[in-house]
Design a protein that fits this description.
- It is a single chain.
- This protein is of the alpha/beta class.
- The protein has a single domain, classed as NADP-dependent oxidoreductase domain (TIM Barrel, Alpha-Beta Barrel), CATH 3.20.20.100.
- Helix content is 35%, strand content 14%.
- It contains ten helices and eleven strands.
- Helix 4 links the parallel strand 8 and strand 9.
């Protein structure tokens, strides 16, 4: 299904994130630096994708200073600064990138503050609309991180709240968390939750229900599965392929449209370094799934 620019002023409709009105289909910047790719996208290609996203009505960009050793934020600033007033920039702290490409935990309160400061400087802004605290208390190999990275959530939230009170961030988000952690954090005022969730992987359903109950924005990552080993790929599931044929869409669009249908405050941030894929993702807003198709897809979960 091709994109139709004239009919998508706010892709997917709108909802509210930390008091800001955002299109429900946004853009995730993690792929712009081209991590792990044999042929990374050129700088010109990445800049063009960002500008095309804005032209198509995207006003919510998810990024982090640790994406590509700061390259994602550098590209955003070059492509979009000075920023439009309606653009909502969301970043993430709790980890540091390494030249090797691995992600190291950076969970201590002073590291969270440093992460916010580095994002502010790199994006050349005085305030980030939302900053997600990514819980990352394990090493890349899955083993526990060092004792200095085993930090109490209340201590982390206290630092994030201080940053919000100082006006450096507008809202606090949480990523890679458990339902118990989310319930513990609710008194701090949580703007959004980013957890792994897709049509096939419903393991974070308890968190989604807490978001529904508390009107918190839900931002699923790996919305179509992942290329990493061990992850199911939504686009390869027979029910998704059949639904795509029935509605004249692509399997990826069906997987994203199903997510939009699960909760009015779902925000999608699919990432890509391809304008063609960007336009396909944005055109998801034109896909309509019947109640019967949604029910069939609801039964496709594997976890």
């Amino acid at each position: 299904m091709p994109v139709n620019d004239a009919h998508i002023p706010a892709p997917g409709g709108t909802t509210v994130l930390a008091g800001r009105t955002v299109a429900r289909i946004g853009f995730g910047a993690m792929q712009l630096p081209g991590p792990g790719r044999p042929v990374p996208p050129s700088r010109e290609q990445s800049l063009a994708v960002l500008r095309r996203a804005i032209a198509l009505g995207v006003n919510h960009i998810d990024t982090s200073q640790y994406y590509g050793l700061g390259l994602a934020n550098e590209l955003i600033r070059e492509a979009l600064s000075p920023y439009s007033e309606d653009l909502v920039l969301v970043s993430k702290v709790g980890a540091d990138d390494r030249p090797s490409g691995q992600i190291a935990p950076a969970q201590r309160p002073e590291q969270l503050r440093d992460g916010v400061e580095r994002n502010l400087a790199a994006l050349s802004v005085e305030r980030l609309d939302v900053v997600n605290l990514r819980i990352l208390d394990t090493r890349v190999d899955g083993s526990p991180a060092g004792p200095d990275q085993q930090v109490a959530l209340d201590d982390q939230l206290a630092e994030m709240t201080a940053l919000r009170d100082e006006g450096k961030i507008g809202g606090i988000g949480l990523s890679n968390i458990t339902a118990d952690q989310l319930n513990q954090a609710l008194p701090a005022g949580i703007a959004c939750v980013q957890n792994q969730y897709s049509l096939l992987d419903r393991s974070s359903e308890p968190l989604l229900q807490i978001c529904r109950d508390n009107a918190i924005a839900w931002v699923p990552f790996f919305p179509l599965g992942s290329a990493f080993p061990g992850f199911s790929k939504v686009t390869e599931h027979p029910s998704v392929i059949a639904a795509a044929t029935a509605v004249g869409a692509t399997p990826a669009q069906v997987g994203l449209a199903w997510l939009l249908a699960t909760y009015d405050n779902t925000l999608l941030i699919p990432g890509t370094a391809s304008i063609d894929h960007l336009e396909e993702n944005i055109a998801t807003s034109q896909v309509r799934l019947s109640p019967e198709i949604i029910q069939t897809l609801n039964n496709a979960a594997t976890t």
